[in-house]
Write a structure and sequence with these properties.
The protein is mainly β. The longest helix has 5 residues. The protein is 7% helix and 42% strand. The protein is globular and about 35 Å long. The strands form 2 sheets. The chain has a 5-stranded mixed β-barrel. The protein has a two-stranded antiparallel ribbon with strand order 2-6. It contains 1 helix and 7 strands, in the order ββββαβββ. Strand 3 and strand 4 form a beta hairpin.
Length: 76
């Protein structure tokens, strides 16, 4: 789990996987979104180094909230 460095609202009822970038600006890592999240936007996928996984029940994320991330490192 990592601290979010972004704000987001979403509809409950499904898991969402957002493209993110892990950052370490101190002792604790944070994650920010990697640009536009639309399904046709490949640039944010090329800039991402993780997925931010938001569970079904989640309706909003505020800066400082803890979110789950799935780093890409080691998956390939």
């Amino acid at each position: 789990a990592v601290r979010a460095d972004f704000a987001l609202r979403k509809q409950p009822g499904r898991v969402e996987y957002l493209r993110g970038r892990l950052q370490r600006d101190g002792a604790e890592p944070t994650v920010t979104l990697a640009g536009a999240q639309g399904s046709g936007v490949l640039r944010s996928m090329s800039e991402a180094d993780c997925f931010v996984v938001l569970p079904e029940a989640c309706t909003a994320v505020q800066p400082g909230d803890t979110v789950c991330v799935q780093p890409f490192h080691g998956l390939v």
